[in-house]
Each structure stands twice: as structure tokens, then as C-alpha cells.
Amino acid sequence: MAEQLEFFFEEVATIDENGNIIGLDIDKAEERFGNSPDLELLKEEIEEQEDTMYPMINPDGPNGEAIPMRNCLNTKIKNEWKSYITGAVATNILDAIMSKNYKKGAKLLIKHGVRGSIPGIVVTLGQHWYACYKEVG
Fold first, then answer.
1. C-alpha span between 93 and 107 (Å, rounded)
2. pLDDT of residue 103
3. CB 20 within 8 A of CB 59
4. CA 71 – CA 51 distance, rounded (Å)
5. Lowest-pLDDT range of 3-17, 49-63, 80-94, 99-113
6. Terminus of the chain with fewer CB atoms < 10 Å: N or C?
7. How far is it, in rounded angstroms, from Cα 123 to Cα 51?
8. Contact between residue 16 and residue 119 where contact means Cβ atoms under 8 Å apart
């Protein structure tokens, strides 16, 4: 799972010089993960917003968006896997992924019983990131 997380956040996500995710390369994601309902949903969301794309907010960013972005991501992660993940665990997963410690993020997801296909879990995290960027940005 760590390899899939790294691929998604390093290869699929386009990151600017400030660490903000400014886009997603859905074609790369499809090549790696195949065609999945989660990926199709993310693709549709991006296509709908194509004319109004704004940079995604780095949850560690210096511009004051960090707290609302982190809160949004934590809430979405907890809601997605509420029977497995508490607020503290969601924060630890987010911190691991954002610090590029994908192995730790994967271990936390597995340790706390998150179930589903690995590509599905990874794409779901990407969907939540995108949804939070729209809500907070």
C-alpha cells in the first residue's frame, strides 16, 4: 500500500513549488490502478471543476489555510472509515502522507483495519483531498 500511496501523491498529484497540490494526472492513475468507480468519480469531479481550478491547499501551508484544510481532511477520513479510525489516527495518517512517509501511512491504515482494494483506498484519499480543496479553497 505504501508504494501505491507514494505513486498517487508523487506521480499522480501535480505539486507546485510551495507544496500545494494543483492538479491530478488521471491518465497516470488509470494506467496504474485501472478503471475503478472511485477513480471515475474523481475524474468527473475534476472535469466539472475544470474551468474553475484553483490551487489545492497544502495542509502544512503558511497562508492560514492549514487548520481548516486539516480539519476537513480529518473529518472526511474519519467519516469514510469511522468504524476503524479515530481523530488521532486520522491526524497521524495525514501527517505521515504529507511528510512523504508513505510506509507509515500505509501501516496505520492497515493496522487500524481499513478495508478495501489498495487502489480504492488510495483514490479515496485523493478524492477527499480534492473535496476539501473545493470546500476550503
1. 9
2. 92
3. no
4. 26
5. 49-63
6. C
7. 22
8. no
9 Ramachandran zone, left/alpha/beta (phi>0; psi -120 to 50): alpha
Q: What is the DSSP letter of 58?
A: P
Grid coordinates standing for 45? 469531479
- Comparing CA positions, the residue from 8, 136, 9 lying closest to residue 73 is 136
Q: What are phi and psi of 4, to 5 degrees?
A: -70, -40
Instruction: Name, in order, each residue with C-beta under 8 angstroms of 123's C-beta and a sequence gap of 6 or more.
Output: 8, 29, 33, 36, 38, 39, 42
Contact 14, 25 (CB under 8 A): yes
- Residue 104's Cβ-side half-sphere holds a number of Cα atoms within 13 Å equal to 13
- CB of 136 closer than 8 Å to CB of 69: yes
